[in-house]
Amino acid sequence: MRRALVSSLQFALFGGALFGAAVAAEGFIESVSQALIWLPTGVAIVGVWLLGLRAAFVIATTTLLHRLYLGYPASVWLPAMTGSAFEAMLAVLLLRRWRISGTFAQLREVWLLIVIAMLAPLASITGSWIARSMPGLFRDTPFHSGWDGW
Question: Is the CB of residue 21 less than 8 Å from the CB of residue 40?
Answer without folding.
Answer: yes
